[in-house]
Design brief:
Strand content of chain A: under 5%
Shape of chain B: elongated
Structural class of chain B: alpha+beta
Strand order of the largest sheet of chain B: 3-2-1-5-8
Number of helices of chain B: 12
Order of helices and strands of chain A: EHHHHHHHHHHHHHHHEEHHHEH
Number of domains of chain B: 2
Radius of gyration of chain A: 26 Å
Distance between the termini of chain A: 14 Å
Number of strands of chain B: 12
CATH topology of the domain at 257-522 in chain A: Cytochrome C Oxidase, Chain A
CATH architecture of the largest domain in chain B: Sandwich
Strand order of the largest sheet of chain A: 1-4
Radius of gyration of chain B: 27 Å
CATH topology of the largest domain in chain B: Immunoglobulin-like
Number of helices of chain A: 19
Oligomer: heterodimer
Structural class of chain A: mainly alpha
CATH class of the largest domain in chain B: Mainly Beta
Largest sheet of chain A: 2 strands, antiparallel
CATH architecture of the domain at 257-522 in chain A: Up-down Bundle
Distance between the termini of chain B: 46 Å
CATH class of the domain at 257-522 in chain A: Mainly Alpha
Chain lengths: 666, 419
């Protein structure tokens, strides 16, 4: 990381003229074009790229979901073969969990954690770029399996021994195991980076208990990732050696117990559920107070319940295994622990409701998505309690009731929260407001669509329709008009509504940003927001804040705009300044010296080495060597590259070398 | 929540049908009022795998536990949404001043934390009680083994005093026959991947894991055919791995057992069935066992599926036509005319009708022919000889045998006598 000092007023801006692009020991200087994105270490650009890539995978996963529902629309469906269907549901889940929700949450965390803690960037900017590119290459690698003999077909839980070569002879599971190891590296590196950022780089005055709630929840998520990713990595390593190198970790004939995989997978897999939803909990905990014009009710309770979920989340994994034959004592322990985790989750719902209570509500699209999350997640949480009751779960597990439950939790929880975040922070990130009209179509069609799709699955599951079946038969659908056949068709129609809802979002983005769009530049503080990230311009400058903010309050930005003229316990807030005025004030008092890291070639090169090695594991050991060679070269390049770009890369060369480097970082 | 209403609906409209459900009828009706009434119509009658229509003691224990939990969940849901939607309406922006910037009320928070905790403690205690009751094996009357394999269940009755006495092993597949009212312990394992044994109306599911033996209690109050399905994803044809439990009265069960161990009856010489026997020996018997079958030179024909199928077994066909489904209980052996006579038989006739087996008039010849003509085309299986390098050239499932139509005629004639 380059630490550069420069006066804020730059008299002449030298033009970057990198005559020797990609020099082994140079730093990139381009401020425009694809190079300014590919080699950037700016957390904001990285956050945007995370978001774009995750959105792409969301659409891929959505197409997979649609094909699944088409196949199941009527009995004996023929849209997909059994083999393709099994690949489809495996990759739908894998894509949505690992390539959409996790990286989309990472997009928000990358973009907003540094802004919310008042930092100029993350603690390790080059590592941040590495996380992004490792994720992208890992996700693309995983999906190339579609064109190389078929994708993984063992379900996202990939239970042994069905994942072994004799039972899944294509290379799909190899792609899956290697692809997730690669994206796991991205998550782990990102987690360490953001944890250090939160612990070490908070602005003066920002104690942990003054941290914006999104940063808190994202911080808990990074801690969960830090401990969960190694577990799945171990499991994936075992699976890789099982399949590619003749190991027998999961070979029953060699004495292995298949339940080993289940424990490893779910010790990761359950915290993973919280990894998926807590960022969205954080997002709506930002949105609800802003549009209720009130602070978050019980901030410390929300923080500590989030942390409590982070701890208790480690003690409930076996509730995914109530039918696995663990024995009644183990099942009883995990059953009770699972009920216990409902308490901190309930605390959050209570606090959100009480945040709204007594407020002055403004129903923007972001607010609607947040309220939608409370409602849908509550339904998912309550159905969750019904299968925390282990004996009931033995009737419900592996049926569509569970599919209904976790879609209410993950779509209703995580995804609606992410959409709330899109609408709330869009003007912050892109400087333009998304259309509220399209936004409301987006919201209502998604809500109606998701309830039409996932609501009937409760009924289907309780009436005994198992999951992961490429076909179902009329004989088991029951009699009467509202039978299984009706609800399967209904759910498929719901999927179409949901798809139109999501298309509304894409249309909204297009009409806002298409060339010649009439959408005006957004005001600096369109929502009369409360937290620190809004105290920067929209979009923020490369260095985020002109002056390192000094924090006095939770909801710092609100308190800069409003003054409490009440006496004693009586609070009475009156507006003293607009957001734009507060930001202008910061600009007038800009720091004389601003520190920014320089871009680097090496993160993307190092990231590219990983899929090469992974293809090598599948196809040819020589490729592993080649990939390792690239990785070693990249690590040396990374270690040895200078802190700044060369002054000769600028025209005219800056008199103060630091000036040029600073511009190169933009 | 929806299932609450279903309980009440059944309780009201068909009293007595669902045994213990009815005496909870009143409470369940309150639950129905508390939840969304409109969804009450949203449920099929008589879905064969309905988890809310227990037909035996074990499923009833689960049901007695789950409906109050659904009720509580429904009430909590309605309470939360009432408060939330009231707040959303009451505090909409009508030009009121900036609200008080309250940061929270710790006493209220703590109270609202303890309340759900107390509710959950109330749920946890009966949960643990039911768990222990469902793990009990002391009251077992009958032991039946099940073994999962891609993609069918083998079911065998070991020699025992239980089950009213089993004097020699009975091996069958796809359909388990039990006596009404007896406590059966299913001991299960698997030959390849993890499968899950689930007869929803009789009990919750239990995974059957290779290398381990897991148990599952079964008991049926009334004679009937109870449908089930493998519920742990087990590969390509997971959707086509089904099973049924047939519960019958004591006398019918004794008759069924006696029939299962009857000596092999060779077909009439020079009949079509006799040609079928020869075809069976040449085409089928290397995998499928028919007990008592002898080769032309008088030797017992012993099937060696362990040498011919990757997972090591194939369904025993000794009494195929005493069952009424085949190929992992995926397809009916009874045609559409005869199927309802057995499947929808009145409770007191189930055993009798079932024990009649499949006659030539009742045979679902269309699907059985399709199966014999090209099994992997009907049910997806790993049998393509060019793709078996990872399984020592052994198929998983029944391969394409290139049988002629004449051979199929012969086999059907022969198989029709297997009962």
């Amino acid at each position: 990381m380059a630490i550069i000092e420069r006066p804020v007023d730059v008299p002449v801006a030298p033009t970057p003229t990198a005559t020797t692009n990609f020099g082994y020991l140079r730093r990139p200087v381009e401020t425009t074009g694809w190079r300014s994105w590919a080699f950037t270490v700016d957390h904001k650009k990285i956050g945007i790229m995370y978001g774009v890539a995750a959105m792409f995978f969301f659409l891929v996963g959505g197409v997979e979901a649609f094909l699944i529902r088409l196949q199941l629309a009527s009995a004996d469906g023929t849209v997909l073969s059994a083999d393709k269907y099994n690949q489809m549901f495996t990759m739908h889940a894998t894509t949505m969990v690992f390539l959409f929700v996790m990286p989309m949450a990472a997009a928000f965390a990358n973009y907003f954690i540094p802004l919310q803690v008042g930092a100029r960037d993350v603690a390790f900017p080059r590592l941040n770029a590495l996380s992004l590119w490792v994720f992208i290459f890992g996700g693309v690698f995983l999906n190339t399996s579609w064109f190389l003999g078929g994708a993984a077909d063992g379900g996202w839980f990939m239970y042994a021994p069905n994942s072994s070569v004799p039972f899944s002879p294509s290379n799909g599971v190899d792609f899956w195991a290697l692809g997730l190891q690669i994206t796991g590296i991205a998550s782990l590196v990102g987690a360490i980076n953001l944890i250090v950022t939160v612990l070490n780089m908070r602005a003066p005055g920002m104690s942990m208990m003054r941290m914006p709630i999104f940063t808190w929840m994202a911080f808990v998520v990074q801690m969960l990732l830090l401990f969960a990713i190694p577990v799945i990595t171990v499991a994936l390593f075992l699976l890789m050696f099982q399949r590619s190198y003749g190991a027998t970790f999961f070979s029953v004939e060699a004495g292995a117990d298949p339940l080993l995989w289940q424990h490893l997978f779910w010790i990761f897999g359950h915290p993973e559920v919280y990894i998926l939803v807590l960022p969205s909990f954080g997002i709506i905990s930002e949105v609800l107070p802003v549009f209720s014009r009130k602070p978050l009710f019980g901030y410390p309770f929300v923080v500590f319940s989030g942390a409590a979920i982070g701890f208790v989340g480690w003690g409930v994994w076996a509730h995914h295994m109530f039918a696995s034959g663990l024995g009644p004592v183990s099942v009883a322990v995990f059953s009770v622990a699972t009920m216990a985790i409902a308490v901190p989750t309930g605390v959050k719902i209570i606090n959100w409701t009480l945040t709204i209570w007594g407020g002055k509500l403004w129903f923007t699209t972001a607010m609607l998505f947040s309220v939608g999350l409370i409602v849908q997640f509550t339904i998912g949480g309550l159905s969750g309690v019904t299968h925390a009751v282990a004996p009931s779960d033995t009737q419900q597990t592996d049926t569509y009731y569970i599919v209904a439950h976790f879609h209410y939790v993950i779509f209703g929880g995580a995804v609606l929260g992410l959409f709330a975040g899109f609408y709330y922070w869009w003007p912050k990130v892109f400087g333009k407001m998304l259309s509220e009209t399209w936004g409301k179509w987006n919201f209502w069609l998604m809500i109606i669509g998701m309830n039409m799709t996932f609501g009937p699955m409760h009924i289907l599951g309780l009436q005994g329709q198992p999951r992961r079946m490429y076909t179902w038969t009329d004989y088991r659908a029951g009699e009467g008009f509202f039978n299984g056949a009706f609800w399967n068709m209904f759910a498929t129609i719901g999927t179409a509504v949901l798809t139109v809802g999501i298309l509304c979002f894409l249309i909204n983005v297009w009409i806002t940003h298409r060339p010649g769009s009439a959408t005006p530049v957004a005001p600096e503080d369109p929502w009369d927001a409360r937290s620190l990230e809004w105290m920067s311009t929209s979009p923020p400058k490369p260095h985020n804040y002109d002056r390192t903010p000094i924090v006095h309050d939770l909801d710092e930005f609100f308190h800069r705009k409003y003054e409490d003229i009440g006496e004693g316990e009586e609070h009475n807030y009156v507006r003293r300044a607009t957001g734009a005025e507060v930001i202008a004030e910061e600009e007038r008092n800009a720091d004389a010296h601003i520190h920014l890291p320089a871009p680097s070639y090496w993160p993307i090169v190092l990231a590219a080495a990983l899929p090469i090695m992974a293809y090598g594991v599948i196809y040819n050991t020589l490729l592993i060597v080649a990939g390792a060679g690239v990785a070693v070269m990249a690590m040396f390049g990374w270690a040895l590259e200078p802190a700044d770009a060369d002054p000769s890369d600028f025209d005219p060369p800056p008199t103060d070398p630091a000036t040029g480097t600073e511009l190169a970082n933009v | 929540m929806t299932a609450n209403e279903r309980t009440s609906m059944h309780g009201a409209s068909t009293p007595g049908t669902f045994g213990a459900v009815t005496h909870h009828g009143r409470l369940a009706r309150i639950g129905a009022i508390a939840t969304l009434g409109a969804l009450a119509a949203g449920c099929a009658n008589d879905a064969p795998q309905d988890t809310w229509q227990p037909a035996g003691d074990n499923a009833q224990k689960i049901h007695d536990l789950q409906w109050p939990v659904f009720l509580i969940a429904g009430v909590v849901g309605v309470a939360v949404f009432s408060v939330l939607f009231y707040a959303l309406w009451r505090y909409r922006d009508t030009g009121q001043p900036i609200p008080k910037q309250t940061h929270g009320k710790p006493a209220l928070e703590i109270g609202l934390t303890i309340l759900p905790a107390l509710i959950l403690i109330g749920v946890a205690i009966p949960t643990v009680g039911t768990l222990m009751a469902l793990a009990d094996t002391d009251d077992t009357d009958c032991v039946i083994n099940v073994t999962g394999q891609q993609w069918w269940w083998e079911i065998d009755y070991p020699v025992q005093d239980g089950c009213g006495g089993i004097s020699q092993p009975i091996v069958t597949s796809g359909q388990m026959v039990i006596e009404v009212g007896t406590n059966v312990i299913v001991r299960g394992t698997s030959r390849d991947v993890i499968h899950s044994w689930w007869i929803p109306k009789l009990n919750g599911k239990r995974d059957m894991v290779p290398g381990r033996v897991h148990t599952n209690r079964l008991q049926a109050d009334e004679p009937g055919i109870y449908a089930g399905q493998c519920t742990e994803f087990c590969g390509l044809s997971h959707a086509n791995m089904r099973m049924e439990v047939i519960a019958m009265e004591h006398d019918d069960f004794e008759a069924w057992k006696a029939n299962q161990i009857e000596a092999y009856a060779a077909p009439e010489p020079e009949s079509l069935a006799a040609e079928g026997e020869a075809t069976f020996i040449s085409q089928c018997a290397r995998c499928h066992q028919v007990d008592g079958l002898e080769t032309a030179d008088g030797e017992l024909q012993i099937a060696r599926p362990d040498l011919n199928v990757y997972s090591g077994a194939a369904p025993n066909l000794t009494n195929l036509m005493t069952r009424n489904t085949f190929a992992g209980a995926s397809y009916d052996l009874l045609n559409e005319t005869c199927r309802p006579l057995v499947w929808e038989a009145p409770s007191d006739r189930v055993g009798e009708r079932y024990n009649e087996g499949v006659t030539a008039d009742c045979l679902n010849e269309v699907e059985l022919r399709e199966w014999l003509r090209n099994a992997p085309a009907k049910k997806p299986m790993y049998t393509d000889p060019t793709k078996l390098e990872e399984t020592n050239s052994l198929p998983r499932g029944m391969p394409y045998l290139a049988l002629s139509e004449d051979q199929i005629d012969q086999l059907i004639a022969y198989l029709l006598e297997r009962k």
